[in-house]
Specification:
Helices cover about 60% and strands about 0% of the residues. The protein has 5 helices and no strands. The longest helix has 27 residues.
Length: about 100
C-alpha cells in the first residue's frame, strides 16, 4: 500500500513539474506589440477634452433644433391640411334627413 501511494505521489509531482516547465515556455514566447491602443473587452482610449466638449455641444444644438421646430412648426408632424368649413357641407353628407321626408 505504501508503494502504491509513493507511485501516485511520483505521478503527481511529475505532472506538476511538467506543467510548470511547459507554461513557463509559453510565457516567454508571447508576442509583444508596440503599436496603438487595444480595446478588446475594455473601454477604448479616452478622447481628448475638446472632442468630448464638441460632442456635447453638437448634441445640444441638435436637440435644440429638433424641439424648437417641433414646437414652432408642428404641422410637419400633424399635417398641413386646412380645417374644412362645416357650413359648406350638405345635409346628406352630415346624415340629416331632408325636410320633405319628414312631412310625408
Amino acid at each position: 500500500m505504501l508503494a502504491s501511494r509513493a507511485v501516485l505521489v511520483g505521478r503527481l509531482l511529475n505532472r506538476a513539474l511538467g506543467r510548470q516547465a511547459g507554461s513557463a515556455g509559453v510565457l516567454r514566447n508571447q508576442i509583444v506589440r508596440h503599436g496603438h491602443d487595444w480595446s478588446y473587452r475594455v473601454n477604448g482610449p479616452k478622447p481628448d477634452l475638446i472632442t468630448r466638449v464638441g460632442a456635447q455641444v453638437a448634441g445640444g444644438l441638435m436637440w435644440w433644433w429638433v424641439l424648437w421646430h417641433l414646437f414652432h412648426e408642428y404641422e410637419h408632424i400633424t399635417g398641413e391640411f386646412d380645417y374644412p368649413d362645416p357650413s359648406q357641407w350638405s345635409n346628406a353628407e352630415l346624415g340629416i334627413p331632408s325636410e320633405l321626408e319628414e312631412l310625408e
